[in-house]
Amino acid sequence: IPIVQLLEKIRPTIITLALDPEGSGPDTHYKTLIALSEAIDRYAAAHPEMNIRIWGYRNIWSRFSLQEINTIIPTSLNSFAVLHNMFNSCFLSQKSASFPSYELDGTFSELAQKIWVEQLDHLTELLGKEYFYASPNQLLRRSYGAIFLKDMSYREFSDYLVPVRNLLKAKGMLETN
Questions:
Q1: How confident is residue 120, by pLDDT bands cut at 50, 70 and 90?
Q2: Beta bridge partners of 149
Q3: How far is Cα 108 from Cα 114, in angstroms, rounded to an integer?
Q4: What is the pTM of this model?
């Protein structure tokens, strides 16, 4: 209910959320996805006229493969600095994480940057360096990383969650037996 109330107050047309699979990191991400999906269902039902978009991202605990995404955001060195500054200013409790990553002994913002660089490396391998270096788009020429997103309509988001919701129903039935 508090999430629905917040959605009603803000009335977003774009909602970003982590699409981390169950078991890929701390279960808070997965539980948050479930809570958000229920709130988004109620919000969408109350506002069918809105063209709600869901931007799903993967956190540091899992990665999208290229075939899972439909949106790529190039990132610059400035983006790295902004992320790191925001992380250190806004997420103080995460500076020394309860669940550190095996990939990097540092802050999650540094690990996110490492992932963004790896994702750009995958794109560079696929498209070639010239695609970026010779691009008329200045942001592509200055890219140091890439953020992978899955941009979905509300209906696509609902369809994406069918297996997740079926799994939750099955778990619920097992717990009651």
A1: very high
A2: 57, 71
A3: 10
A4: 0.82
